[in-house]
Amino acid sequence: MTTLFMYYIGGRVQGANIELHDIQFAAHTHPQAAFPQLKANWFGDKNRVHVDSYTPCRWADGYDITLHTEPFSGPEKLWFINMGGYLPGNPAEVHQFGLFVAPDAEAAKQRARQVLLTRVLQPHHDDLREVDDCLPLSLLERWYVHLHPNPSGTLAAPLWQGYQPL
């Protein structure tokens, strides 16, 4: 069964003094099947990119998540939100991200502010994306996120964490 996977990837980028990270989404039957695509899409040094984790996205924010080849007709959308903020004494901006279900971007941001980085200074959203727009287009198939209410679902932990060079 084709599953939506969220990948946390990192690597080196020319001109940067520290490793940079990104989130990518892909639809595959096995998480490793996306590795060539992840490497090809990396904006930095393609010889120094790696996967730190991958997570199946089957439930979020009270909804089951499935993929279909037809667009979803409901008003809800699946949003990826990356929040930023600051901790006293720490010079770096800290981040936390999650998936949220809402009819529009503003409602998704409001929901994320209730859940992510609730104890930091100056919390703000750094990134907001509709997950359907993050799925790569393929000449063979296009996948769409479908959402089905399920208040008793659970958020999946990463299926794998570590350092996997691409």
Automatic annotation (TrEMBL):
Extract the InterPro entries matched here. Answer: DUF1543
Could you name the domain of life of the organism this protein comes from?
A: Bacteria
The residue ranges of the DUF1543 domain are 16-67, 92-135
Question: Which Pfam families does the record cross-reference, listed alphabetically?
Answer: DUF1543 (PF07566)
Q: Output this protein's name.
A: DUF1543 domain-containing protein
